[in-house]
Amino acid sequence: MHVPDPRRIEAFVNSHRALVLTAIVAWCLASWTATGAALGYAYATVHALPGLNAVRAAASMAHATTITDAKGRHAFTIFEEQRLQVPLSRVSPNLTRAIIAVEDRRFYAHDGVDPIRLTGALLHDVLHTSAEQGGSTITQQLARLSFLTPEKTIRRKLQELVLAGRLERTFTKNQILELYLNKAYFGDGLYGAEAASLGYFGKHAIDLDVAEAALIAGLVKSPSAYAPTASVNRALARRATVLAVMRDTGVIDEATFRSALRSPLRLNDSLRREEAYGQYFKEEVRKQLVDMFGWDRVYRSGLRVETTLDIDMQRAAEAEVARSIADIERRQNRRGPAGSADTALQAALVAVDPRTGEVRAMVGGRDFRASPFNRATQSRRQPGSAFKPVVYAAALEQGYTPATILSGLNAPATLTQAAWLPDDEHSADEAMTMRSALRISSNRAAVRMMQSIGVGAAVDYASRLGLGNMPRVPSLAIGTGEVTLLSLTSAFGAFANAGELARPVLIRRVTSSDGQVLYESPTASTHAVSPATAFLITSMLEDVIDAGTAAQARALGFRLPAAGKTGTTNEYRDAWFVGYTTSLVTGVWVGYDQPRTIIRGGYAAQLAVPMWARFMTAATRGDKPEWFRPPPGVITVEIDGASGRLASSECRRAPDAAVRLEYFAQGTEPIDVCPLHRTNFLRALVVPSLPPPVPYEGPRQIVASAEPAVEPVPQHAAQAPQARAEEPPAKKKRGFWSRVFGVGKNDADRR
Known about the structure:
The chain is an alpha+beta fold.
């Protein structure tokens, strides 16, 4: 072996000292620079990572807000990520074993990094000059899900390794596994094992069998590619791979492997199928929640929201809206597809508990996806004759009665400087009682009533009933003001609720994810009309359903005691019906967003009432008949239906008389005897007429009596014929002629 001569080396160094020193310095500088750069790179990579305290935030994640119906059934979720968090104890062991087998078989043995798997991944990346090979443990994947971006770089991999160690020092293995199973993305918009189980198989994560667990576990590698909703074949091939790994690692035996491999794939999306109904309701709730709590809290903090919705009623409502639209379109000469949502026939329905204001069902149009515009809450339309009960309620509050005769109906009304005689397709009679006028929906009678009470009274009571500010015009009597379907339905609810207006409510309670109550709906109602007025309006509106413009409801099989009113606007542009039982008030509307004729001759009786009747039949199935009972202060008096006055013996014997029991608020009942069935001479002595209008000075207080209420008469006995006589006289001290002949002079003092 040749050994260099030290003297020659020394001679060389001495003769080339400067060159040698320069080389040594260059080498040192290069080494120091490389080392510094490496240290700086490592420092920069790690320095930006969260510390141990911040790592604890890995346990937090965006939680979906869950929404239940009035019976506690899951109805909707509102989420940034479709995730339902569950503890590890609520995840099937089949799934945890499958996940560990295919993603990190040495999970319980390493400290966050698997050296064996990492070495294999690094060798692959070096040989292929890429950073695409896996090798990440479940802990590393959790670090990436919680803190890092999905980019595949050396820097991201270094950060992942550091964070994995910190996670292992912060959480137990089972805690890490639980967090991972709740955070992992499983395709088709589903985050976490629970959402994936419900979204793919319609069952909770705890109930997954081996084949189902293998399919879900296989999604983690490439959720978009392997999701069964994207490709059944790829999903089954990936499931077979996972099952083979489970068998090879001893998680399952050969028999279980073969059985699971043959298991057919049966998809069942119960998570999102539940949201096939009630999207208009959900959107109203979502908007209210965001207004109350802000977007971030609603979408990420896992609120628990108890609503007033009844899922069964909602399904029935949507079915009947769809059926009614289809029936009407068939009547429109089978026009075929309607085209865009802007030109399509629309319908809306809302059902409310009149005692609480809780909304049980809401349909805002024919298709939420095509048009999320809610025609039950956002659209303001003229209600037509459906507004008339408001006018008559204002009259009852001033002392008028269901037996009040509205006369002079063929003479122009003079509510303003100009005379006006509205069209009236229902009757050409000169006079009729208030009960008859409401039953047949006489326009002229409503205008005559408005003339007597004053426009201001109608506007006032519309406001009291939650209908907002109405225009102070004579045509308000026949519904030319604008309302929403929800507000009009709520107003009718006051008639069903003894005059108390319960404002519409969609949300009962909101709690945080840890159970803290954040909001509870107030239960207070406001006084709109007296209990006597509410009952008298209801009694008259019962006639509308039993023998009036809404009699079609009975023909279609709806049998419970109910009251309601139809409404049809000019040129048949809108069809309304609002009706109620003691426990449910429902309003329906049919029309176009850009008002135009629905169908020639298309009254609400044919277009809106059938939808209402079919829905109410379904919604109240099983309910027992419950009659509206008169409150204290309402009495019954036997009257002649034509004159509205006390029935005499002559009335009872007359072949053309219509003697009946009528309801009155005590103090407003007639005291004069009917003159119509006496001699012509006595009849000629009594020719009263409605007094001129007087300035409206606010609601008249009717004092209720403490006497026990009188039981209601059967409905067939309560039908009033069209009036054929004069207006009833006022209640006043009876004079000699009055006592002898039943003659009154004037009734102006009763207004």
